[in-house]
Amino acid sequence: MVELFASTSERLLGNRIIFAFEILALIISVLMITVGMIQNKTSQTGLSALNGGNDELFSNSKERGLDKTLSIWMFSLGIIIFVSTIVIGIITNVLLAEAAAS
C-alpha cells in the first residue's frame, strides 16, 4: 500500500511539472508571436521567395538597434521553447514507463 501511495504522489508531482512546462511553452509561444509581429519586415511580399524577387540577398546590411535586439530575443525564445518541449517529452515518457511497469 505504501508503494502505491509513493508512485501516485510521484505521478502527481510529474504531472504538475509537465503542466508547469506546458504553461511556460504557451507563454513563450505568445511572446514569439508578439516579437515576430513587431519585427521589421525585410521583403516587400511574402511570396518573393517563390518568384525569386529577393533583391536584398547579396546586400551588405547589418541588423542594428531594435532589429538586432528583436532578432536575439526571437532566437533565445526559440531555444527556450525547444528545450522545454524536449523536457516535456522526456518527463512524459518517464511517467508512462513507470505507469506501465507498475
From TrEMBL:
GO BP of this protein: protein secretion
Domain of life where this protein originates: Bacteria
Transmembrane domains' residue ranges: 17-38, 72-96
Protein keywords: Cell membrane, Membrane, Protein transport, Translocation, Transmembrane, Transmembrane helix, Transport
Record-level GO cellular component terms: plasma membrane
A Gene Ontology molecular function term of the record: protein-transporting ATPase activity
Main location: membrane
Compartment(s): Cell membrane; Membrane
Metal-binding as UniProt keyword: no
Membrane-related topology note: Multi-pass membrane protein
Pfam family, one: SecG
Family: Belongs to the SecG family.
Record-linked NCBIfam families: secG
Task of the protein: Involved in protein export. Participates in an early event of protein translocation.
Name by which UniProt lists this protein: Protein-export membrane protein SecG
